[in-house]
Amino acid sequence: MLSAAKFSVGSKCSIRTLTSIATSEPSAPSVSTPIPGPKSKALKDDMAKVHQNPSVKFFIDYEKSFGNYLVDADGNKVLDTFMQISSIPLGYNHPELVALAKDPRLITAAVSRPALGAWPRTDFASLLRNSLIEVMPKGMSGVQTMLCGTSANENAIKAAFIRYQTLKRGGKPPTPADLESCMKHQLPGTPRLSVLGFQGSFHGRSLTMLTCTRSKPIHKVDIPAFDWPIANFPRYKYPLEKHGAHNKQEDEKCLKEVRSIIESRKKEERDVAAVIVEPVQSEGGDYHASPEFFKGLQKICKENDVAFIVDEVQTGGGASGTFWAFEQWNLPTPPDMVTFSKKLLTGGYYYTEDFRVREGYRIFNTWMGEPTKLVILEKVIEIIKRDNLVEKTRQVGEQLKKELSRLETVYPKNILNVRGLGTLAAFDMHDTQSRDKLIDVALSKGLHIGGCGDFTVRFRPALTYAKKHLEVTLDLLEKSVKSVV
């Protein structure tokens, strides 16, 4: 039993006892107020006094939430198939993770947080081996921890630039001319390199990553950007088995464009040093591409000494039905780098040996990750393997996709283009207004689903999402669709 000691903070508030944390999952949703309800609205008003909050939907009582159910500030119990934008691997307050609160490693890492790039913990290497290295993709050499998905992508790109310039120097370190000119943002120390991304992609909101992100205008407006190229990502027709010829042409057209961009930029001495791509364009509209497309993309990268970076921030960690979504492509060799965050709890990237950065302070910041998350991730991975959760996710994902396809035949004017990879499932609606209405209606009935792109509904449940949760999902989804018709 965890300690029931109560900690006070100042004179105005206190932290609840650990024994107040929920320890059982509700049997069904229960909604008694609109969402957001009066308490959530009051909390939002209070938050506005001290913090920006225009994107806040409603407030969650995390002590009362458990498993696949969240409980909001007004006591509404909601089946959560969006799970903090795909970021909680085992649902809310998994008891084995709550028990970690008394682990001395977690306590000391939290209260004496290390600057990992300079003064890591004595057990840092073993923490990595028991967590991130335990699930490292085959063929990779090591892992670099970072703070989040955005910083993972940004530093992977930095590593790609460093490797590209090192190759041009014949493997030698920067010259005195490089070091002097870079301080003036001039050649040769500040090269005119670029990264190729794809229309519909999302890789983060930092200044660098916004150049690669092309999912929603609101992310990018008013923000300066690099002069980096963008290519089209395949847009398939569904069901796939009925549109093979069209979809193959989409692959070929997009790959031809990628090759042309790399060649033209090379001639202009504005070389593409890296290509970054998501297995599923999750924020842009849950767009998929075939294994043949990704194999062709890797081939083009290899032919041009361009880094092939796979952004698995949202798809990594088992939700696709394999631990890494790219494992389903059957690539001849591993990607050059694979970035991650969300279900892996901390950010970072795996790399092959060619992309290991050997000089200090080139991939560096104060925190460079979070050791407390590795302590938790160590237990998360143990549970995922012990309970066979990736395979169970694959199975329930197949059933989810099958049932969504059934609903598509019943409501063809409201549910379109069903697609999925594991529980990374989605369907389209005819317009944004209908999509947004469906999400609101479903929430009012106790089902939390997500939206992306212009008119897409997506599912991002935890790895503990099972048949009983699927049955509730389908029941509430169908009732919601009927009310939107």
TrEMBL record:
Protein's recorded name: (S)-3-amino-2-methylpropionate transaminase
Co-factor requirement: pyridoxal 5'-phosphate
A GO term, aspect molecular function: pyridoxal phosphate binding
Domain of life, source organism: Eukaryota
GO BP annotations listed: gamma-aminobutyric acid catabolic process
Claim: Transferase is one of the keywords in the record: yes
Catalyzed reactions per annotation: 4-aminobutanoate + 2-oxoglutarate = succinate semialdehyde + L-glutamate
Keyword terms: Aminotransferase, Pyridoxal phosphate, Transferase
Signal peptide, first to last residue: none
EC number: 2.6.1.19, 2.6.1.22
Organism in which the protein naturally occurs: Acrobeloides nanus
Family named by the database record: Belongs to the class-III pyridoxal-phosphate-dependent aminotransferase family.
A Pfam entry, by short name: Aminotran_3
GO cellular component: mitochondrion
